[in-house]
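S1.2 Input.
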Amino acid sequence: MKNKSIHINEEQLNRQYGYRIVKRLFDAVASTCAVIVLSPIFLIIAIAIKINDPKGPVFYSQTRVGKDGKLFKMYKFRSMVTNADELLAQLKEQNEVEGAMFKMKNDPRITKVGRFIRKYSLDELPQLINVVGGSMSIVGPRPPLTSEVEQYTDYDKQRLMVKPGATGMWQVGGRNDVDFDEMVELDLTYIQKRSVWLDLVIMFKTVKIMFVPNGAY
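S1.3 Output.
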């Protein structure tokens, strides 16, 4: 268990006017441009998903918890069988990550195409649509499920003080190789130290691990 010693100063976060304005402008412009530029890749992935599983949808949406506990629909490319949520209850005991989240390396719900796009984080690309809409940022804490937040301590809930991100310190800092407590520490460290420069560093590392995966599955 990590030493839970990071405590976020909400007043200090609220005073970061310049950073918040720059971050939102950058998020809106960069995500819009990215969706346009990456549209051919979106199409290729969509076709591959349909060929692999013709009956299922291309996109998968799921209710997640955003800033200050606000719920929103997060979008991803579907990487699992269509009844994946129903099958989750049967796999809970095989969870390989301690804490309030579920991860399983050889998850039987993942399709062949899904395994590939998850390895290279391509399934996350539709989250750019969330960034355009403002429910997410490019960089921030991982957006949790409502069932996960129900298990949060007050300390863990500090993750919800800022917008969740399509990428963040958890994704570039080990991802599935870290447990829940370590993920919380990484996210709180980001919130405490966030800046334009740190966001750029995380984005650069995110692009790098799309070509050299760091444990995603």
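S1.4 Remarks. Residues 4 and 217 are 28 Å apart (CA to CA).
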